[in-house]
Specification:
The protein is α/β, with parallel strands linked by helices and 385 residues long. It has 2 domains: 81 residues, no CATH class; 267 residues, no CATH class. The strands form 2 sheets. It has a 5-stranded mixed sheet, sandwiched between helices. The chain has a 3-stranded antiparallel sheet with strand order 1-2-3, with no helix packed on it. Strand 2 and strand 3 form a beta hairpin. Helix 4 packs across helix 9. The radius of gyration is 22 Å and the shape is globular. The protein binds zinc ion (ZN). The site of zinc ion has 8 residues, from loops.
C-alpha cells in the first residue's frame, strides 16, 4: 500500500497535470485529511480506512472515490487532496496565478475570464495561501543561503496615508526569494498643510504604527533566513532600524552596508534586491505608480507577493531576455526544470504538515489588519483549513 510522504516532488515528479483530475492508477490516500485526526501525519502504517462509495463531480461529471477514516470516522475523497477541492471553477486557478504575476489587476482578470470580480478576489486569496505553503514546503529540503540581501519594498494600503514595507530577503547569488514579511509605517515625506492635518486626524482615530515596526520585522526575517547557520554574509542599505537586529547575531553575520543613494546598477552590492523591487513593481498591478488598482489591505498585497514569489522562484527564468535562463530555484538545485501553473497547483499542501514562520501563520489566517478598515475578512474554516 502506498504510504508516501506527502511529497509532491517525489510522487508527481512535477507531472504537468493536476493528478487529481486524472489520478494515476493505484493511487491511494496517504493520510487522513482531517487536521484533527491522529492519522493526519503521513506515513503512519497502522492507519486504516475503507472505500465509501462515489460521487459525481459537478464540474466535469467524473466519478470521484470517497473514503471513510476508521479512526476519526470522517469521510473524504480523492478531491480532498486537490488544490481545487470545493471549487466550482477549478479550471481558472492556473490562469489566475499567471495573470496575477503578469501585471493584471483583479477586475481585469475577472473581465478576461468572464467571471464575477469576487470570484477572482477569493481565488487570489486561496492561491496566495497555497503559495505560502508551497514555498515553505519546497524550502524544507533546500540548503540555506549564505549570502543574503534584504530591504523594504515601500508601498501603501487603502490610501497613501497608510504606507508599509514588504521586507524581502533574497539569495544574492541566485535571486531566489527566501522570505518576506511586512511592517506598517507612518506617512512621511513632503506633505501640504492639509495633508498633515488629515494625517493627524487619522492617527487620532486609528492610532499610529509602532515606530520600531521595521526593527521587529527584520528580527523575524533574520530568524527565518539565518536559522542554525554558520557565518552568513548580509548586505543591506544604511537604514538605521536594520542595525540592532543584525548586531544581535554578533560575529555570525558579516554585514556589508551600501548607502541607499549609491547608483543602482549591476555593480551595486544590492543589485539582487533592487532587481526584485523593479520586477515586482513591474509585474504586479497593485504596485504600479499612480495605479487605480492599489491594494486595499496589505494582507491582499501579501497574497499577491506569495504568488509572485512562487512564479519568480520556480516558474520564470532569472533573466528575461534569455529564454533558457534557469529559474532561481534551478540555480539553487531545488528543482531541475521550470514549473508551470499546473505543476504548482498539482497537489494540495496541508497546513498541518508545514511549519510556517510566525509572520506567514498570520498571513495564512488573514490576521493582518488594516487599521482604518471597519471589517477585515479573515480565514476561518472548519473543514477546508
Ligand atoms: Zn481520520
Amino acid at each position: 500500500m502506498c504510504r508516501r510522504e506527502c511529497c509532491w516532488l517525489a510522487f508527481c515528479n512535477y507531472a504537468s497535470m493536476n493528478f487529481l483530475n486524472n489520478p494515476p492508477k493505484g493511487w491511494l490516500p496517504p493520510f487522513c485529511p482531517n487536521g484533527n485526526c491522529k492519522y493526519h501525519k503521513p506515513m503512519q502504517v497502522e492507519w486504516r480506512y475503507k472505500n465509501f462509495g462515489f460521487f459525481r463531480r459537478m464540474t466535469d461529471n467524473r466519478r470521484i472515490q470517497r473514503y471513510l477514516c476508521l479512526s476519526c470516522k470522517r469521510t473524504f475523497s480523492t478531491q480532498s487532496f486537490s488544490t481545487t477541492y470545493w471549487q466550482k471553477r477549478p479550471d481558472l486557478d492556473s490562469k489566475v496565478l499567471t495573470m496575477v504575476a503578469n501585471g493584471m489587476c483583479n477586475r481585469q482578470i475577472a473581465r478576461q475570464l468572464a467571471v464575477d470580480p469576487v470570484t477572482i478576489n477569493r481565488k487570489i486569496e486561496r492561491i496566495g495561501r497555497h503559495c505560502l505553503l508551497f514555498l515553505q514546503r519546497m524550502m524544507a529540503d533546500a540548503r540555506p543561503a549564505d549570502e543574503i540581501v534584504f530591504d523594504g519594498f515601500e508601498t501603501f494600503e487603502l490610501s497613501q496615508y497608510f504606507p508599509f514595507h514588504h521586507n524581502v530577503a533574497i539569495d544574492k547569488n541566485t535571486d531566489f526569494i527566501l522570505h518576506f514579511n511586512d511592517s506598517e509605517l507612518r506617512r512621511k515625506g513632503r506633505m501640504t498643510n492639509a495633508q498633515k492635518r488629515r494625517r493627524s486626524e487619522l492617527e487620532q482615530e486609528f492610532g499610529r504604527p509602532d515606530p520600531r515596526a521595521i526593527e521587529k520585522s527584520i528580527a523575524e526575517l533574520l530568524s527565518v533566513v539565518i536559522k542554525g547557520q554558520e557565518p552568513v554574509k548580509v548586505y543591506t542599505d544604511d537604514h538605521t532600524q536594520y542595525r540592532k537586529p543584525i548586531q544581535s547575531y554578533g560575529s555570525q553575520i558579516e554585514h556589508t552596508v551600501t548607502p541607499g543613494k549609491r547608483h543602482r546598477d549591476k555593480d551595486n552590492m544590492l543589485w539582487a534586491i533592487n532587481l526584485f523591487d523593479r520586477f515586482f513593481r513591474h509585474s504586479n498591478a497593485n504596485h504600479v505608480r499612480e495605479t487605480l488598482a492599489w491594494s486595499k489591505r496589505r494582507q491582499s498585497s501579501t497574497d499577491r507577493l506569495a504568488i509572485f514569489a512562487v512564479w519568480r522562484n520556480y516558474m520564470n527564468g532569472r533573466r528575461q531576455k534569455d529564454r533558457r535562463s534557469p529559474t532561481p530555484a534551478m540555480a539553487r538545485n531545488i528543482i531541475d526544470r521550470k514549473l508551470n501553473g499546473a505543476d504548482v497547483l498539482s497537489e494540495r499542501v496541508f497546513v498541518g504538515h508545514v511549519d510556517l514562520p510566525e509572520s506567514w501563520k498570520k498571513y495564512y489566517r488573514r490576521d493582518v489588519t488594516t487599521r482604518a478598515l471597519p471589517r477585515n475578512r479573515r480565514h476561518r474554516l472548519t473543514y477546508a483549513e
